[in-house]
Amino acid sequence: MIWARLKGYFETSLAGLTQPTRSDWIFSLRTVSAGLIALLVAYALKLDHPQWAMMTVFIVAQPVAGMVLAKGFYRLLGTLAGGMAAIGITTIFGTGPWVLVTVLAVWIGICTFVSSLLRNPEAYGAALAGYTAMIIGLPAFGQPHLVVDLAVARCAEIVLGIVCAGLTSRLILPKLASDAIISRLKRCILDLATYAGGAFSGGDPATLSGLHRKLVADTQTLGEMRAYARLEAPSFAPRAHPVRRTIGQLLSALSAARALHSHAAPKNAALIPVRSELQALVSELAAKPGALDDTAPWVARLDAISVKARQMPDASAAQGDDRVGTITRLTIAADFAEALRQVLRGLDALRAPVTRPARGNRQPALVVHRDYAGASRNAVRAALATLLVAAFWLTTKWSEAAGTVILVAVVSSLFAARPDPVQVAWGFFKGTLLALPFAFLVGQVALPALPGFGWFMLFVVPILVPTALAMANPRYVGVATAFAINFLAFLSPHQAMTYDPRPFFAGSASILVGILLAIGVFILVLPADPWLAANRIVRAMREDLARLCLHDRVPRRSAFESLAYDRVNQLMPLVQNAGRKGDAVLGGSVAAVTVGLEILRLRDAAQGHAIPSETALSIANFLRGLARELLFRAPGDPQTSTIAVARHYAASIAQRNGTSEMLQVAASLRIIAAAIEDFPDFFARERS
């Protein structure tokens, strides 16, 4: 029965892996080669656990060189920190078993807490520091004099694997993160052009919704790749700033296109030319091969459209129409053109970086969101799960339970901060279970009968090459990575392999039980709810907007954008697979950025001398009312007068004074009102 299931699973998996690309094959062969080199060197150095060197290669393996270097670097830091912690804890508390496991569990909780507050790859290093102390400390239980040797050996094995993986990924047909960022950014620009073309022409809502989700997910990936590229090469550091700003401009353009689609204007002489030019430009950009090879013509056209959109139409040209509504839509169209222009300039900055002049003192940005409540829950859960299983081990004296303790610590800390830790851990379990029969056949049957490194390669390479191909496929990366590292862990390759099934099955059972216990902990002990974390981020975004309304000191636009897009990036993985509800939250978060920028426009206008004092007072009153709405209105509560006030102020301002400054104030008020109307629940405080 199990073989039938294994066969069916692999057939399904292989169906999804048809036609791997040249890049996938390079990654697969490079990873397997690096692993074999690491194992050979470990044999030559006579390391106690040579399989860890080869396992490390597969643990840090990534298709992009920068990702390998980043993961390897923080794995090294985490291993060193965990090794030093193991030495200190074992030296001080090694004489008391219960105290020892308690302190180790507390250490794992602390590291899990820190990991939950950080981002990849830093978060990985923090989690690793926690369970590395357990991996080193438990084998030294009862013999603390061995802990230094165990820590040194562990670090040596890890360093060897990292060096082999890093050198091969950087020297053998490398796929660089900087190149990957440029390629993905170009694809995002073309997808944005396709989305905007459909939005401006009334395209299919389902298609537009799918493109919207894809663009949001791709911008998140761009943000992650930015950190990897900075570690890949110091020369990329000056380009990291353009990447960050370009990601924000992508989302701004997406938000503006959505707003123009949602608030299609009645036909009027002022809006039709701008909208038609934008539609023609994005349609041509999406359809023209090699359109992004030279961005200069597109930038020039977008600049001209932006200038035209920001010209205030004559009153006679808008007679019979809502003039403020027309100006509002023209403002959004100009914002789209400007954002897309900045995205194209960001692409040029990545392809031909220039030295950035030193920037002067900047006003401090608002504090970056840290989910302390979620981090605390993850820490308590990891520490408690580790301590309970360790208590079972000490009580029963079952030697193999030490492996269970380690796996519970690993899984409960490593996957704690994932949006759905149960699903991730279950994928890890499936990969581990699939590895068991292959490891038994190779390690317990084939290699004892046919020893030697040549036979080892003959049996292992045909298994690991398809596995590495699966690791290059985002759909199977979790299961495939678990298969690779646990296949090597079960196999435990040494120069002299012997047939000894009892410890093989005992150790394998302890690992599988440890993973299942960790999954049970995720389900039963302080279970994670992605929506609670998402609501905390949404609440922080509303508080940011309220702070913009009320705080005496007005931050720079770039400071607010940096903070706001950081929050959007944190929100994406929590809700992007939650259907319409998730789409509404993501749409609201991007609209919140637009609202924040319009608040800044209003604050700047109120502090200027181009508008009358009574208008400045009206703006201040409106912003105070908006802050109250953001902080106190709950979903389902009746709308306050904020939207009505915004529309009333906009109309009265336009009637009293037709200068461009006053009309721009009116447009900002209308844009804020429209955003709150589009996403009313996002801009309301959730009920406690």
UniProtKB/TrEMBL annotation:
Q: How does it sit in the membrane?
A: Multi-pass membrane protein
Which parts of the chain span the membrane according to its record?
27-45, 51-69, 76-93, 99-118, 125-146, 158-177, 379-395, 401-417, 424-446, 452-469, 476-492, 504-526
**Keywords annotated in UniProt:** Cell membrane, Membrane, Transmembrane, Transmembrane helix, Transport
Q: Where in the cell is the protein located?
A: Cell membrane
Origin superkingdom: Bacteria
**What Pfam families has UniProt attached to this entry?**
FUSC (PF04632)
- State the protein's name: FUSC family protein
User: What species is given as this protein's source?
Assistant: Mesorhizobium calcicola
